[in-house]
Amino acid sequence: MSSLRTSRTRLVAAAATVVLAALSLTACEDGTGVHASDAQTPTTATANTPSTTPSSGASSSATSSSGSGSSSPQARPTTGTARPAAGTSASKPRVPSGKPVTCEGANTKTVAAPLNRPVNHMLLTVTNTGSAPCYLYGYPAVRFGEAQAVPPVIEASQPQAVVTLAPGESGYASVNLSATDGSGTNGHTVNSLTVYFRGRSGNESVGTGAHPALPAKGVYVDDSLKVTYWQQSMDDAVQW
């Protein structure tokens, strides 16, 4: 019995082999068959690569991101607003225009400020508000209150050159209001001040005068009142 089963098994196996061989031969002849070696090859190439090719737009975007060091468009610096270069200023300085003129009330601003040191002194500050340079000739002709005469100048304070003010620059003069030792006479308090400007000759006043405000309580003056020449710096003005 066992030999009969063995014979049948072998017969069935042989028949199956014949059938498979016939099918394989037929497939190879019509070009539609798949070889056993091809059927066992895994399709790892398609699993590791994208199924579609990136568009040209996506490729250029990726290249741009890699070139800028960031893969996100939001990380790119904004280029729409231009910034001023380092060391430059947004506003341009005033450029003098025109020929120099004489400083006077119409093209300057005058401020009068009492000083703590030296005592009994006042500082006059004249700022060029015009568009052209101006010359401060000589010394200020000041008139306190209703005085009929202007005080004398301290001759030793005369500078080596005429004070020249570019637009926006300031010149200075100090006023000795009264004697510090009380030796002055006719002392009184005044509440108004007019400053006149001299011409090139130094003897006449030119243009309009300035009327700088005084402290509400006024200032005390006496017969020792005198002024300095106009100075280019404040330090030179207050040393007298």
Write the layout of secondary structure elements.
Elements lengths: L1 H29 L5 H4 L4 H5 L7 H13 L32 E2 L5 E8 L5 E8 L5 E11 L18 E3 L4 E7 L11 E3 L2 E6 L6 E6 L8 E3 L4 E2 L6 H5 L2
Parallel strand pairs: 1-4
Antiparallel strand pairs: 2-3, 3-6, 4-5, 4-8, 6-11, 7-10, 8-9
Written overview of the protein:
It is built from five helices and eleven strands. It is an alpha+beta fold and 240 residues long. It has a domain at 102-238. The protein is globular and about 50 Å long.
Summarize the model shown:
The protein is an alpha+beta fold and 240 residues long. The protein has helices at residues 2-30, 36-39, 44-48, 56-68, 234-238, and strands at 101-102, 108-115, 121-128, 134-144, 163-165, 170-176, 188-190, 193-198, 205-210, 219-221, 226-227. The chain has a domain at 102-238.
Task: List the keywords.
globular; disordered N terminus; 240 residues; alpha+beta; 4-stranded antiparallel beta sheet
Helix fraction by DSSP (H/I, runs of at least 4): 10-25%
Instruction: Specify Rg, calculated over alpha carbons.
Output: 51 Å
Helix/strand-derived class? Answer: alpha+beta
Give the SSE order as H and E letters: HHHHEEEEEEEEEEEH
- Our count of helices gives 5
* Relative strand content: 15-25%
What is the 3D shape?
globular
